[in-house]
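tool_log.txt
---
The assistant was asked to compare two proteins side by side. It first ran the structure predictor on the initial sequence, then on the second. Raw inputs and outputs are pasted verbatim so the downstream comparison step can read them without reformatting.
(1)
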Amino acid sequence: MAHIAQKGDRFYVVVYGGIDPATGKAKRDWHDGYATRKEAERAAAEITKRQHDGEYRSPDRITLAEYLTDRWLPLKKSQLSRSTFDSYRNNVRLHVAPRIGAIQLRQLQPEDLDTLYAELLVDGKLNGAGGGLAPKTVRNIHGMLRKALADAHRKGTVHRNVADLADPPTVRHAGAKEQQVWSTDELRSFLDAIEDTAWFAPVYLAANTGMRRGELLGLTWRKVDLDEARLVVDQQLLSVGYGAEVGVPKTSTSRRTIDLDPRTVAVLRTWRRLQLEQLMANGTRNDGDFVFTHPETGEAVHPDRFSKMWDQLVAEHGPRRIRLHDLRHTHASILLKANVPVKVVSERLGHSSPAFTMTVYQHVLPGMQADAAAAFGDAVFGMSTQLP
């Protein structure tokens, strides 16, 4: 059983572990100090429950993999979205457990995490092609570990959160892929080249709205008003394991209304007619009312399939290779270069704030700054004013 002990101004949970046969003395596990007795009592109650359920392990013996897999992830399952939980579980299974999972939780050091991150950047890919994970992916793994170890620290399982002292790679890490965008001429040439393909309509809408992949594939016809030339983003299609599920938007600001230009409206009208013809010809129904569906099944297009088709289209028709997400960057960059206010671009993309938009697209700003300086000079001094 667990009881509370006080040392100085800290409270500890002490768990009796029977008699040590080697010494004949009682074994006791001390769980790290808590600031208040109430916190310690909550921890003691949880430990007692694990003892009754047969799940208790001494904090000195549990490994990182055991903690993450058997304790932390099961508790988080009801608190996380399906896609986030699936991502955490895969990261633990594929990247964390095989490399540092055998280390005892209380023996884990910041250097162990630093080594993990360095290895993942070099050879973290598991698709057979070799190579390292993107710095952003490694940072996501660090974020997961930091949350897990913070919970362990709060409950007294570890003395400190070593992830706070680790050094994950920055997004601007030397190996990070730089943002790639197409020019207006390149985008127009690509759209012309794929006009007769089955994927023209979703690619066209993505290019002309800057919608995220999940938002595009989760869009339903009842959220599209072609007469008023606008659509509403209020859900997204998420890749969960080998399937896809509808989920809430990425952030609260991702819920938004996007206005459409006449060309995009015309493309959607043509696509809607073609979609109905395809469904009727194949004897299928669009029960989910999705704007973009698989013609043979009537089901929504899986996000991973759309990304794969994008890569094929770019390889065959693209002026140069860019990622699917770079199509969103292209949309934003073209708007900013056309002097559309940053606030409007931010709202269109569903960003948290215009400041975030400026940070992401700061590569576009130098040219805009030069234009602004020239415009101010012309407004105040006139085009014909002689230089001093």
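(2)
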Amino acid sequence: MNEPGTAPAIELINVSKSYDRPVLHNINLTIPQGQVTGYIGANGAGKSTTVKILTGLITAYEGQVNIMGKDFRQHTQEQKALIGYIPENAVLYEMLTPVEYLQFIGGLYNMQEAVIEDRGRRMLDMFGLSDALHQRMDGFSKGMKQKVLITSALLHDPQIILMDEPLSGLDANAVILLKEIIGGLKKAGKTILYCSHIMDVVEKVSDRIVLIRDGYIMADGTMSELRAQAGTESLEDIFALLTGRDRSHDHGSDFISIFNKEGGIK
């Protein structure tokens, strides 16, 4: 958390964004240094747009974004160097090997080759990729590519990590490992914005949870605060309540009835 006199890691001040329709409506969000913030919402709620603004992929927006106390528009390259970004889908230079790819990424951050090699090999070994270091990635599975992507995002030791569905394609052991890594990053004082649809993971890793709906922040607090406000225990129920989904209705039975009527599932 922020010490007195230190700037928040992330500040969004009256941030709005429209395409053919408004996507974000005057978002005000302050994330202190060292906090893991879960950022949840249905598809189209504005989560990915927020993340793309924070990575600099979207520059045309209203309002102000501060990263470590500095206006992102005025210090874009300097601030980008503080950020690690793990998107849902790994888009890599697949003709390269993991070692070659990490050398390329590390070079963008002016890292020493020896540091890149040491950190990269150790992280890839943790993910069980030590036997694939020199294999071209065009033959990798989605999960293997995601592990390389996670490694590349953390390689330069960023102060802020943006995770947008980071578990995509990972096997069960890798999911457990990533949750442990998030815990280690938190202990090291890193700031994490964690976007996901997997509610139980969000609940376990987050210090604070922000729920966004149709471009508006609908809830913001610790899990215990959200439980008290919503009068329910699970994050799934809180999510359903605040996004308007009827959890009292048995949609599973409705689904099966479709096949029953057609003579399918009995």
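---
observation on (2): The two ends are 55 Å apart (CA to CA). Residues 172-187 form the longest helix (16 residues).
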